[in-house]
Amino acid sequence: MPKVAVVYYSKSGNTQKMAELVAEGCRQVEGVEVEMVSLPGADVAAVSAADGFAIGSPDYFSYAAGHVKTFYDEALAHKNAISGKPYIAFGTHGGGAKVLDSLERLSQAIGLRQVKPGMMCLGAPGPNEADAVRALGKALAQAVAGG
Ligand SMILES: Cc1cc2nc3c(=O)[nH]c(=O)nc-3n(C[C@H](O)[C@H](O)[C@H](O)COP(=O)(O)O)c2cc1C
Hints:
By secondary structure, the chain is α/β, with parallel strands linked by helices. The protein has 6 helices and 7 strands, in the order E-H-E-H-E-E-H-H-E-H-E-E-H.
């Protein structure tokens, strides 16, 4: 069964809530398995074998959080396994809303193919953002199922 890895770091829970909504959206597509990968501590070689990636981070100093950057640092060694696979990025922030730029640059550098523009939420996703976050996950899972 094709698999989506939802890879994220969250210290105070906002990005985790977004990751859970992304996963809910992925699960709307039949025949796609979803694995939650909370950073740090992931087996990056094993995660690289997934068929698609949703990658999320809080905005730290207008950039991805350190644990997420480290994931990309380690994933570069598995670029052959990752290259060409679909991904979406998501993030939460405190008002700056810059984190997607870094996630998209880093994802491109390891050869990932963007399915849909990413999404950011100010703090935890609100009730009127939940459907859009789920839709992002669903689009990724559809790309994985069709690929
Ligand atoms: C060390 C640190 C740096 C941060 N830097 C920024 C920033 O540059 N811009 C911004 O909008 N929010 C910044 N924030 C706020 C977080 O991005 C925001 O609270 C986020 O939703 C936290 O996600 P989490 O609950 O998943 O840990 C920072 C928070 C921390 C702890």
